[in-house]
């Protein structure tokens, strides 16, 4: 595939190839000289219509480690504020001889739309509540690393706001491709009706879900995507679905805790859990650079 628009376009061997490529780049990133010439003369635009810390910076770093030329575009400081359209914006960037566009956008399907209307390779860096493919890849890669290489048969629970989460959908698709068992846990108001069709278990009781799993991925409440007043309230949510040290220590086994970030400390996860040795939150961020290097490197080989 020329683009990376979603995990739904990848099969198991595509994902395994990305992981093997990321293994090599992770070795490179641990060397004193972290830069390789692989994408010399490739120009990449990071086009962000929505805020980001981890995704934007790790794409930029991945591109620079691969020796690509990089330009960064933030919609908030651009001529989008004067009414310029998405297609005009991107076509103007492409006129400057840009090869690849990494785009984050608040609307689901924005990357798919763009890929049909412009002549560039598109990498989806998060489109509304739809997909966040590189996040799912770095999450699965981090689980694989934590468990010494195999994800098949591992039990992963995704806790929280599944309804508004692109991370949840991409994680479910990726983990299922790799043979993991996946459960979602949260209040009924935040679990979409179609979830059963994805082959995942549903559990509304946090303690039961945590006692079932090997890995718990704790999601943030996506307040920016809530069009109705949030139910339950944040305080109720924390009481029912917040992970704290007391719960963690009372479980039958030592589970691994993940979070895609940004964390709302004290809401979905307490600091003593986020910063504990059971948490791999910063390993996820570290792996994000190697995964994005792998994705960009493999896509560059598909240029036509
Ligand atoms: N996990 C993630 O996408 O974080 P950012 O929104 O900071 O990029």
Jot down its keywords.
304 residues, alpha/beta, 2 domains, 5-stranded parallel beta sheet, 4-stranded parallel beta sheet, binds phosphoric acid mono(formamide)ester
What does this structure look like?
This protein has 304 residues and is α/β, with parallel strands linked by helices. It has 2 domains: 7-130 and 285-300, Aspartate/ornithine carbamoyltransferase (Rossmann fold); 133-281, Aspartate/ornithine carbamoyltransferase (Rossmann fold), CATH 3.40.50.1370. The protein has helices at residues 12-29, 54-65, 86-94, 110-117, 133-146, 166-177, 206-212, 234-241, 245-250, 271-274, 281-300, and strands spanning 43-48, 69-74, 100-105, 121-127, 155-159, 181-185, 201-203, 215-218, 256-258. The model has no long low-confidence stretch (mean pLDDT 95). Residues 52-55, 126, 135, 260-262 line the site of phosphoric acid mono(formamide)ester. Catalyzes the condensation of carbamoyl phosphate and aspartate to form carbamoyl aspartate and inorganic phosphate, the committed step in the de novo pyrimidine nucleotide biosynthesis pathway. Residues 2-145 form the Aspartate/ornithine carbamoyltransferase carbamoyl-P binding domain.
* Tally of distinct domains: 2
Q: CATH class of the largest domain, please?
A: Alpha Beta
Please trace the helix and strand order, writing H or E for each element: HEHEHEHEHEHEEHEHHEHH
Q: Structural class of the secondary structure composition? A: alpha/beta
Distance between the termini: 11 Å
> What small molecules does the structure contain?
phosphoric acid mono(formamide)ester
GO molecular function, one term: amino acid binding
Binding site for L-aspartate: 82, 166, 220
Enzyme class: transferase
Protein name: Aspartate carbamoyltransferase
């Amino acid at each position: 595939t020329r683009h990376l628009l979603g995990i739904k376009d990848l099969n198991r061997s595509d994902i395994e190839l990305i992981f093997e490529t990321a293994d090599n780049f992770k070795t490179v990133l641990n060397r004193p000289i972290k830069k390789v010439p692989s994408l010399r003369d490739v120009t990449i635009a990071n086009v962000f219509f929505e805020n980001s810390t981890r995704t934007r910076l790790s794409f930029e770093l991945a591109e620079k480690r691969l020796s690509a030329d990089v330009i960064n575009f933030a919609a908030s400081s651009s001529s989008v504020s004067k009414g310029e359209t998405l297609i005009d914006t991107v076509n103007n960037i492409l006129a400057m001889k840009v090869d690849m566009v990494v785009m984050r956008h608040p609307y689901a399907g924005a990357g798919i739309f763009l890929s049909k209307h412009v002549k560039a390779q598109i990498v989806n860096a998060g489109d509304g509540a739809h997909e966040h493919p590189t996040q799912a890849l770095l999450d699965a890669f981090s689980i694989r690393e934590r468990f010494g290489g195999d994800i098949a048969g591992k039990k992963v629970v995704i806790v929280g706001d599944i309804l508004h989460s692109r991370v949840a959908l991409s994680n479910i698709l990726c983990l299922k491709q790799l043979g993991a068992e996946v459960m979602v846990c949260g209040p009924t108001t935040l679990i979409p009706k179609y979830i059963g069709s994805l082959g995942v278990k549903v559990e509304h009781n946090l303690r039961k879900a945590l006692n079932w799993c090997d890995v718990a991925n704790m999601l943030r409440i996506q307040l920016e995507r809530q069009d109705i007043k949030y139910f339950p309230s944040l305080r109720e949510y924390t009481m029912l679905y917040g992970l704290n040290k007391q719960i963690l220590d009372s479980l039958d086994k030592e589970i691994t805790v993940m979070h895609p970030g940004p964390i709302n400390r004290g809401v979905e996860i307490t600091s003593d859990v986020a910063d504990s040795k059971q948490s791999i939150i910063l390993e996820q961020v570290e792996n994000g650079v190697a995964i994005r290097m792998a994705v960009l490197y493999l896509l560059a080989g598909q240029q036509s």
